[in-house]
Amino acid sequence: MHPSHFTSSPPAPAEKSGARTQRAFLPPLFAVTTLLFCLLATFGLWYNARASADRATALEFESQVREISNQIGQRMGTYEQILRGARGFLNSMPRAGREQFHVYVDNLDLGRHFPGIQAIGVAEVVAPGGLEAHNEAIRAEGFPSYRLWPIMPRERYTAITRIEPFNRMNQRAFGFDMFSEAVRRTAMEQARDSGAPALSGKVILVQEDPNSSQPGVLMYLPLYRGGGVPASLEQRREALLGWVYAPFRINDFLAGLGGERSGDLAISLYDGDVVQEESCLYGCGAQAQPHVLSAVRHLVIADRPWTLDMRSTPAFEARMRSDTPWLIGGGGLVTSLLLSALVWALSSGRGRAVALATRMTQALRASNERIAAEQQRIRVILENSHDAFVAVDAEGKVTDWNLQAERTFGWSAAEAIGRRLDDLIIPADQRTVFQAGFAGVPAQAAEPVSKRRIELTAQDRTGRQVPVEMGIAVLHGESGDLANAFIRDLSELRETERREAQRQQALEEARARLQSAQRMEAVGKLTGGVAHDFNNVLQIISGNIQLLMHGVGEAHREKRLASMMEAVERGASLSSRLLAFARRQPLQPRAVNLRRLLADMDELLQRAVGAEIAVETVQSARVWNAMVDPSQLENVILNLAINARDAMPEGQGCITIEAGNVELDDDYVRSLPDVSPGQYVMLAVSDTGSGMPREVLEHAFEPFFTTKPEGQGTGLGLSMAYGFVKQSGGHIRLYSEVGHGTTVRLYLPRAFEREEALPRPPADDAIAGGSESILVVEDDPHVQATVVATLRELGYQVLQAHDGASALAMLQAGTRVDLIFTDVVMPGPVRSTEMVSEARKLLPEAGVLFTSGYTQNAIVHAGRLDPGVHLLSKPYRREQLARKVREVLDARPARIPRRDQVRTS
Q: Which residues are in the CHASE domain (predicted)?
């Protein structure tokens, strides 16, 4: 072989290897180049979108800053016009009284249309020499405790003599001399000298509560004699009558600025041209908050500079934040990666196809395993189901039969599978219903699965009838319809329905008895008004019977008198119950623990509403004590529970009784003039009944108003609850929604004392008399005669008077007595309470004991017996009279010794 053959061939393999290396290097190079180019284009687009979003944010911020500044200026301009209108009203009606001024301001409806303006008032100029005359003049207008304050010597005083609305908060400023404070005085003098409106610097309004105050300012407009504005400074000072002014609470004034976007800006407002902490009116801590944008604007309000510092909030920045730059960046990045991957993929080979086939094979195997596991799971569910499961093929033969089907019908799976279902479990008289149910399913819809539910009577292997509910699902396929059926045994349900019908019948009978009781309660409402005369008659009969009982000696007469006395006591008990029902007896409030009271009432409430209605009690961990009459509160809770029961006509539902602590603040009670702010114990009774529409809610508290059918309620339940809560110094609210139920909430005043055990009746010990002198004041001569005779029998020295005037005349003539025993309700010019008041001035050491069958409002106010008052309700027994008289006599500071306590030497 020639040597040249070996020298010319070796370079070929090296060239092929280099070409393969070059071809392998080119796809990644193309992919990287494509990626870099796309990333560069993406960065350019992202940068432009980001700059555009920042410009839009700055423009929106500047727009809101300008809008807030304009709104503040417009509001203050509007309020300046309100003051000018008030000055025009006063100038045009110089004799306008308080009522006309009240009507004028009330028509402005400040609270609704002018946020931040606390009131419109008038401050009058008072010369030092006319201070007392000024005070007397205002007192003569119906303000007996009025005085100008503070009093400190100076050349001229001013006094706030009119301020509207004249609510509790504004009454704190009544009579205040604003000249006594330097900031207010500076603004008032500026307005006086210029004749134009003047705005004060930062102050704390005297109306503010020290615990929750906020900064404020005042705007003044001078009032001159003659109505106009004098030309010269000296004339303006000489003609000054006072100022019409308006106080502003800055927090309320700035409320709502910006409308729906009020949370976009953090606003700080400063008095003057300098931003400093001591001149901050609003938003004093906003500068410390992180922000992106800020702006400062200077305003001039009524010739006084304000500085407005506004900063963007996180809410504004979040709202203005644009996702477009990030979408562009993210989309560009993804696109760059996809393009570079596509370039790389086009140069790829066979390896990825092989890997893909392997993954698909593994996925198919995993799918088959999941299907097998799912079939096993379904089999476990069917075998453990509480319902019988049966599968039927197109010919009606059983193909599946679970364990519950074996238990229900007695056939094993081996016996049932392959037989027709209707031959196994359907009686002959029910097969038409069964076949119609199966035949009707395919015709119902063209969906792949059709469903139907039927009820029929099946039979088990022994022939026992079994009521069942059958849920049928038919799968439509090319080879025919396959049916699956879940069969539920209804035997227990039918038995439960039978027992429920019996309970409903018993409940209806109980309701009929309750309606009769409610009608009797209505009679008590109508007859309560005659209790005073009725009790006087009972007292006459009772007193004379007791006098006779102490003077007879024959057993048969004593027995008859005792029978008569028993009848009188029954009448007295009836009168007392009627008065209590009609809310004419004094309440006896005490500290009551609602947790204990509700626990004691649990059994009573459950009996009242019936076993079918659940009564649930929800209480806070620590419920305050309430200052109420416990027996009356129990009656109210019982009535509300019965009303809730009647609101659930199906006889089923839930009554929830909730107790907790609440505090009603000034904002809550502002629209409720008869409610005072403070701490209350909230008691709520809720039901899941039918609820009440709005037209029924409007009349729900009216007496005798009811939506129940005739004979099923008196309409007194809610009106009784309303009267009790109001007498107790509380508040009641009613919430209801048709179809969702009703909630009645009682707000009872909090008691700071501990609950004490209810007092036990005193022991029936021996009757004690005495030798003291007693003045009996009674207009009914028959009652007077029995009382005088009884007291004399007890050993007392008794004087008598037929009315308050004659009793007072006896005492003024020098008659000395140890006890005044007087009726509450008497005719004549001198009322019993007036007579007692004068008698205590003459005889401060004498005791006083009232008696009455009906106290009205003489010694009972807000349903409660006045403090320190002793009352013996008619009719009373001889023992009760003796015990109460002895109790009052012994309670005197320096009592006269009783006759049986005096020792002789």
A: 154-309
